[in-house]
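## tool: complex_structure
## caller: assistant
## args:
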Amino acid sequence: MTDAAPSGRHDAVVDLAAVRASDAPWVGPKMARLGALASAGWRVPDGYAITAAALEGWLPPAALAELHRLFSAPVAGAAAAVGAEPAGGGHQRLARLSEQARQLIEGQALPSWLADAVADAHARLEARTGRGAALLVAVRSSAVGEDGHAASFAGQYETYLGVSGIDEVLRHIARCWASGYSAHALDYRRRFGGSSPLRAHDLAVGVLELVDARSAGVAFTLDPVTGDRGRLVVEANWGLGESVVSGQVTPDYWTVERDSGRIVERRTGGKLVWSVLGEAGGGGAGDGGGRGTVLAPLPAELAQAPCLTDDEVRYICRQAAAIEAAEGTPQDVEWAIARDLDVPDSVYFLQHRPETTWSTTSPATPAPGTPPAPPSGQSFDPVQYALRNVFKVPGT
Amino acid sequence: MSADPLRVFPVDDFVREELYPGYRQAFGSQPFVAGPVRPFSPADNERYWLRDSLHFSEGMVPASVATLDDAQTWGAQLGAEIVGVPPTRGSVNRLAGTHVYIGTIDVDTQWQVQARAARFGQYVSPILADFDSYWSMRAAELIAAYEHFDNLDLAAMSPAELWTVLKDAYAFHRRAWFIHFEVMYVLTANYLAFYALAQEIGLSGSQVSSFLSGRETFYSRTDEELWRLAGLARSLGVDSALTHGAPGDMRSQVLALPGGSSWVAEFDSFLAAYGQRTEETCRVDTPSWIEDPSPALYSICTFLTKPAGFDFHAARAAAVAERDAQIDQARRSLNGSDLTRFNEALASNQAANFAWWNEEHNYLIDRRAAIPVRRATLEVGARLTDAGRISRPDDMFYLFKPELFDVMESGTDGRWAELAAMIPDRRAYFEYWRERGPSLPTMLGTIPDTVPDPIMIEVFGLSGHFLETLRGGAADSGAEIRGFPAAKGVAEGVARVITTVTDLHTVQPGEILVCGGTTTEWTPAFGVIAACVCDTGGSLTHAAIVSREYGIPCVVGTAVATTMIKTGDRVRVDGRAGTVRVLA
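## result:
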């Protein structure tokens, strides 16, 4: 490690159970929130995080120099492509540049001290889950500065599903990091004012047990179309959640009235495809070694059937509302229902983030790209405040 | 050791009036909290007493004196003591004739205030951290008790069994009111903290209850059901019988129509689910909706008389959207730690929401807790009527609880003649004071400059302005009346001054309701009136909350509106400025 370890968190790899909300500057808000959920008693997939600090210095000097050369090359087009309005063939050049950067990064091995720390954590996870070497994980990018309150960077970094074995895990950690150089990620940073690609980006990576999902999807704690906070919306499909998150399916849809918990609207039966894990070694979409996911036609008997029971819909909404209450702002919450378990034990929360469409008008929200302030402990205690300012008890 | 159930160790040797020289039995504290309901005494001139027309707009019959004592006296005092509210030991009641005045018991030494503050924090914090579980547990306790009492077949009981039920019913009533005040004191602290914070960070305190509005309550569900029944009446073609018939024979008139029986069946299943509630607090003499469904029928008529047909869901959605817009607007005006504190205070109040509970609890406590006492008392009354000892079952409400308990306990039938002889005079007394009710002063005793109990300020509106207005007496008519700006908007219209909920049916669409204060039973009128003006009330008042949800202007805490405004006056209400002007 070339840089001094950031204060407060010296471990390069942290088990999820030890991650707290205040760790967001090191593990990214995505993993920090998941850790906070886990310690607050929500069911989340077990796993561990590799901190942004550990990854910051991981590229060997030669590769770093090459990366610099790529982005600072006196090719006006390339600089323009990442620094200003792309002119003419800017997008094409950006794509070429991106491809070169990614290949360069994906070809590097993690330094051995970091690989060892990840291997230790992975062995612990294999042991905790009882799955041993058969354990399938998701390797998730968790960018520091991602999921800001004003502009969601969600989706700019990649996530790899169905990875197994320490060698593949290590390789996919490098791939997560490299995904920060994808053309769309570079373009997104340019438009939303994130950090320059020449600066090593602040990316942490989460490795999480893959939930063997019967059904999965997203819950919004407001109506994402109208912004109505009196309603929650659930979108879901059979199988893994990728088909819903990526918008490749018309998911089953429920609207639930917040106060009563009543399901007030439902649209099911428009599903044609689902996301399932690719064949082992076969390489699903967007994958290079992990099983990845493939979009497959939905068996006819599943296509018309709602993929959730009403109890599941209501339970997910209650929990999503509780997460929103804890966060203080509307959230979208990804969840999955494990096969062969009963509600509520079957429902896992995978991640959540502030809903951004209806919250962008607030000037008080942090600027995009700046890491959100780590959630402090309670800064307003109603009881102490009442004693001091309402009952005006001297000395309180 | 063998147990002999009949073995008595006589106390006779120790029976005496005295203990130490100079001891008097009055040295024992009774009741053990702070003080029972009683008439005024000259010493009461030294403190303030507010007429509680908010909860008790009509007088109390003798039997209701005990239930009042359980509630605003004993329940409030024990609740304040256990929660440890720093500035107050709860409320205490006096009766003027039959009418209820409320006073507070200030904690008057610094050490006590400090000591209470310390335990208040320890008591309240864990409850606010998980209010949902805390309230669910108490709600479940209350519901279990109602299931027990509602399912008793009183008519089939032996006299001894019935007497046991009566004692149980009173014991439950007292317990229900302790729950009421324990929860209330916990929640008001949370609410008032949010209110004070809002003021500190540059928002208006009066906005706070609107941030917390829009959550469904038992009452909004009741209203929704009544609205649905109105729609059903229209589609079944029975609406004219409902709008034109007298409440007494509505049922037979509806039944005579084709489609009438299906409407009545729907209405009866509504009553089965929602009808175990009365119109007023602590009054054992008022019937439940199941006994007398007139209030429900009146609400349905109100919905039917609205020309365009009031859209319940649209109004509700609009209120929720308005709330969210106000929250968003507040957030946009805040930054940094103010925004963080606002969000945390809002989250705390959404989870432990006084504005919501203030409505929701009425069905579980205020309007229902006395029904088991009422049923058992009426059953005793029915048997005594059959035996010729009293003339009608509800004569029982003109006996004080200790009188009833004495005679039930002793089993001496001879006393009934003596008690029954007093009933006609007691009925006359009640009627005399009922007539006098509207002319009673809003406040008696010494009107203070300020009231130290912030809960009294927000629930009853005892602001500095309110007290000042009362001290100054009513100004010249035509002058501006000022109060608390409870719900925004400006409306002009003809005033309708109402002093009791029983006159509510006289309110005409488009009129401006002027009253002492409103309770949930007044809610149907908010669908037709153009604005609401109350003598009492603050931000937590029913009228304030409901006006916002119905989108009409409202000014509360005017102190003098019902004395300065006459029915038929043309008035202009500015709900944002908190002013009311008599135009002509």
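## assistant note: Chain A is about 35% helix and 20% strand. The CA atoms of residues 191 and 363 of chain A lie 18 Å apart. Handing back to user.
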